[in-house]
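seq:
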Amino acid sequence: MATVAVVGLGLMGSSFAQALKVARPDVVVVGSDPNPVVVRKALDREVVASANTDLSVVEMAEVVVVAAPINALREVFAQIALKAPGVPVTDMASTKAAVMEWAAAEGIELVGGHPMCGKEAGGIDAADATMFEGAPWVLTRDEPAITRLVEATGARPVFMDAVTHDRLVAGVSHAAFLLSVGYVLALSHRPDWPDASRLAAGG
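struct:
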């Protein structure tokens, strides 16, 4: 029976673990998160079969999926390189070129990944096994073991190199975010801003 280790049990990692458990009961999903409260929730809710606050779970894995925050990735890659050399590794970060360079510096041939979905709420409490259904999931190459896992969640694998991904995402996501921030900053000084913000919050 195959084992998949999920590093980082926030919204994305926990949602992935839940989706995989539903679609692939033949796969054992284990997890890691530095927060012991999150680890306890993941175990109590049976998000993963086993979990701990270090990365020792990667030692038993055939595939490692990294869903940790981007500022933790360098250290995570360093630990994976020590504990699970040669095991296929993918990630879920929203930027790819820099992340792949960090992995390469540790000797990891990362399959860069970015599921193009999410929720307003974060953390394990917002986990949703259906979140990936129909969503594009960018992969920087077709590694069959990883592609099959992505497909199992209901997502659609889209293959492209890291530089192309970053350029396109900057246009469709990051630029839009910056524009929205600028819009809010411009309007927030108006006397009617409290009323306008309540209208916007209503969707």
